[in-house]
């Protein structure tokens, strides 16, 4: 078995844990933001609906800012106030409401899981983190802990990006915070720390602290309710980095401690508390180039209409609608790009499309989490009707207003 980590990285003093919980909860009671899912979790008497309300918020908040989520959340809960209502929705409706929120598979999985709760669990939400994670597709350890603690009062810790940052600073954890060894320690820590009588509030307080005070670049340590428990803050104040930092910190040889910064990247006093957390360098995003064509015609009422086609039901932006598009090889000459797009449209429409008839409009760059995408945008006005080969993809003509109300991605709106 691996040796236990040095105590400076743990919360081993019960008196300190008690004081930290008290300080953090008192701050949360004073300073927490009013958010619609918090109001619902606090007042909803029906436990299944309470769990559902928290679940929806947690899924929407993954990788997305609170300010962006609020409006989507309110519209979602208005449209589908219960699991049963969501289970009856179509995927198209879910995608339409989700349009612009990003990471589209989240909405789809939420709906699939709601169907499962209704059809296989008689509409009853699992009540513990273990069951939530085991029984609900798309619910991982974090979401399960959040739902169980906030909706059902289970003393389960949570670890998300905000909690990782706060805990790494509180305990000077400088090893790669995305490594399994560190993540395991952080979960242990979160489970030790969580307040037994107010677990949901405690978890939300820890995340709120990370979101509003212990922020990534310029943390507001002076206002922090737990600064007296923070090893990184203490080190910044009383610093004088020792000559051999890790020996002094952990009583071990440099490089032996699995949670200290690696010997090759010791504490940097110019960074202060932002020495923590540390992450292995991210892989650079994949660079992609896609030709996209806005086909337009006059509809029967004289308004301009645009052709959109549906993407495949799996993979990036699954099931969403877009202008006909074609991924391009890198470094193609412009002439060649245009020809490839014309060939592609020709195969689709079953009639000749001249490359020089495509009008170049400009380029749109959109950054997905792992893809740096450039859309090379063309337009092509058409006379009369065009039928696309339905075997290739479902398609439809829409007005500009209908386009904006459709399940289309932010990238396509930019186009
Ligand atoms: Fe974060 Fe600073 Fe508070 Fe420590 S004192 S937890 S670094 S805000």
UniProtKB/TrEMBL annotation:
InterPro entries: DNA_glycosylase, Endonuclease-III-like_CS2, Endonuclease3_FeS-loop_motif, HhH-GPD_domain, HhH_base_excis_C, HhH_motif, MIG/MutY, MutY_C. Binds 1 [4Fe-4S] cluster. One of its GO terms (cellular component) is mitochondrion. Pfam families: HHH, HhH-GPD, NUDIX_4. It is an enzyme of class 3 (hydrolase). It comes from the Eukaryota. Its cofactor is [4Fe-4S] cluster. The keyword Iron applies. GO terms for molecular function: 4 iron, 4 sulfur cluster binding; 8-oxo-7,8-dihydroguanine DNA N-glycosylase activity; adenine/guanine mispair binding; metal ion binding; oxidized purine DNA binding; purine-specific mismatch base pair DNA N-glycosylase activity. CDD domains: ENDO3c, NUDIX_DNA_Glycosylase_C-MutY. It is found in: Mitochondrion; Nucleus. It catalyses: Hydrolyzes free adenine bases from 7,8-dihydro-8-oxoguanine:adenine mismatched double-stranded DNA, leaving an apurinic site. The keyword Transit peptide does not apply. Residues 60-212 form the HhH-GPD domain. Its EC number is 3.2.2.31. Keywords: 4Fe-4S, DNA damage, DNA repair, Glycosidase, Hydrolase, Iron, Iron-sulfur, Metal-binding, Mitochondrion, Nucleus. Involved in oxidative DNA damage repair. Initiates repair of A*oxoG to C*G by removing the inappropriately paired adenine base from the DNA backbone. Possesses both adenine and 2-OH-A DNA glycosylase activities. Belongs to the Nth/MutY family. This is Adenine DNA glycosylase. The gene is Mutyh.
């Amino acid at each position: 078995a691996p040796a236990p980590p040095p105590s400076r990285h743990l919360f081993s003093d019960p008196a300190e844990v008690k004081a930290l919980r008290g300080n953090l909860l008192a701050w949360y009671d004073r300073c927490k933001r009013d958010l619609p899912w918090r109001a619902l979790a606090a007042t909803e008497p029906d436990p299944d609906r309470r769990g559902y309300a928290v679940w929806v918020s947690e899924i929407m908040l993954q990788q997305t800012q609170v300010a962006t989520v609020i409006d989507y959340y309110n519209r979602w809960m208005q449209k589908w106030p219960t699991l049963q209502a969501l289970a009856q929705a179509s995927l198209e409706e879910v995608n339409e409401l989700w349009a612009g929120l990003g990471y589209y598979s989240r909405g789809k999985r939420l709906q699939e899981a709601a169907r499962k709760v209704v059809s296989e669990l008689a509409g009853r939400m699992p009540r513990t983190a273990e069951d939530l994670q085991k029984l609900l597709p798309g619910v991982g350890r974090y979401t399960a802990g959040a739902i169980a603690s906030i909706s059902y009062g289970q003393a389960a810790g949570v670890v998300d990006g905000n909690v990782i940052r706060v805990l790494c600073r509180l305990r000077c954890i400088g090893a790669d915070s995305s490594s399994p060894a560190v993540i395991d320690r952080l979960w242990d820590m979160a489970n030790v720390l969580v307040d037994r009588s107010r677990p949901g509030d405690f978890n939300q307080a820890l995340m709120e602290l990370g979101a509003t005070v212990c922020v990534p670049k310029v943390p507001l340590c002076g206002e922090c309710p737990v600064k007296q428990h923070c090893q990184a803050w203490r080190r910044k104040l009383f610093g004088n980095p020792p000559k051999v930092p890790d020996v002094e910190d952990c009583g071990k040889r440099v490089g032996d401690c699995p949670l200290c910064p690696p010997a090759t990247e010791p504490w940097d006093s110019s960074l202060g508390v932002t020495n923590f957390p540390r992450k292995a360098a991210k892989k650079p995003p994949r660079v992609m180039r896609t030709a996209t064509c806005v086909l337009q015609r006059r509809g029967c009422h004289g308004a301009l209409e645009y052709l959109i086609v549906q993407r495949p039901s799996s993979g990036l932006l699954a099931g969403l609608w877009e202008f006909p598009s074609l991924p391009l090889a890198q470094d193609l000459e412009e002439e060649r790009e245009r020809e490839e797009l014309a060939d592609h449209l020709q195969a689709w429409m079953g009639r000749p499309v001249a490359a020089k008839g495509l009008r170049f409009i400009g380029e749109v760059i959109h950054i997905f989490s792992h893809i740096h995408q450039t859309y090379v945008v063309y337009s092509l006005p058409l006379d009369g009707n065009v039928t696309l080969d339905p075997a290739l993809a479902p398609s439809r003509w829409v007005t500009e207003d209908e386009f904006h109300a459709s399940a289309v991605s932010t990238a396509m709106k930019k186009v």
